[in-house]
Design a protein that fits this description.
It comes from Stephania cephalantha. About 45% of the residues lie in helices and about 15% in strands. The chain starts with a helix and ends in a 9-residue tail after the last helix. By secondary structure, it is an alpha+beta fold. Strand 1 and strand 2 form a beta hairpin.
Length: about 120
């Protein structure tokens, strides 16, 4: 997700009014996005898609060394489940740095933070 998309989403959720244009119909809201609204889960999914893309790009560049169960099996680098994620890589300082860099980039782009007490 590029910066323009993130800025657009942040304007939608942080301002008191937003406008969405759908081909021939537009509407405006009169309040901010709040807990219990139907939009935040979709925004969360967009953010996680961005993180998954960053991980996949790192795997394709051979920076992230994922897990292979067999020689002919695909590389497993991450699994997302609801609001949890499992990351798979070799246990090395180099791989820890790769993960840290990807998560820091994700934090900067999305504002989502890793819960370090659960990590």
């Amino acid at each position: 997700m590029d910066t323009i998309m993130v800025d657009c989403i942040m304007k939608c959720v942080s301002t008191a009014s937003l406008r969405v244009l759908c081909t021939t119909y537009s509407f405006s809201t009169s309040r901010r996005v709040m807990q219990g609204d139907s939009l935040p889960p979709y925004l969360f999914v967009l953010c996680m898609e961005h993180l998954a893309h960053g991980i996949q790009t790192s795997v394709e560049k051979n920076e992230w060394k994922g897990l292979k169960l067999r020689n002919d099996a695909p590389i497993i680098s991450h699994i997302f489940f609801v609001d949890d994620m499992f990351l798979f890589t070799e246990a090395s300082v180099e791989q820890a740095i790769v993960i840290k860099d990807i998560l820091e980039n994700f934090d900067l782009c999305s504002g989502q933070k890793v819960n370090k007490s659960k990590t």
